[in-house]
Amino acid sequence: MRLVLDVNVWISGLLWQGVPKQIIGLARSRAVTVFVSEPILSELEEVLARKKFQSKMRSLGITSQDLMNLVRQLSQVCVPLSVNVPNLRDPDDAVILGTAIAAKAMLVVSGDLDLLVLEEFAGIPILNPTDFLDVFRLSMSGEKEI
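The structure corresponding to this sequence follows.
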C-alpha cells in the first residue's frame, strides 16, 4: 500500500506513542510503502529543529538528524507534481497532494484539518491516522478493499 504521510504524522509517530507510531511501524515492517518528496523532508527537518521538540528528542536520546536518517530509510523519495487546489485552505499543503499524485499513492494520512476537509484529491482519499489504521486492518483481513 502506497502512502504519503503529512509532516504532522511523521512528527507524532517519531516522537510519541500512539496511532502515528503504529503507522511508522508499518513502514518499518514494509507493510506499507511511504513516499516523501524533498519539500516534505525540508519541512520535517525545519519542524524537528524547533525548540519545542528539543527536550523530547533529548529524553529519547536522539537527534533531529537521527530522525531524518530514519525517515529517509523508511521512505522513498519522489518529485512532487505541481497541483492547483483552489479550495485548499493552506496552499503550503499542496506539496503533500502533489507528492501523493507523483507517487501514485493510494492514501494520504494527515492530522491537518486543512487537508482532511478535502476528504480526497484526484481520487486519493485523505484520512486521519486512526481512520487509516482501521482501513488498513480491514484491507489486510480481506473484508474491504481500499
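Strands lie at 2-5, 33-36, 75-77, 107-109, 120-121, 124-127.
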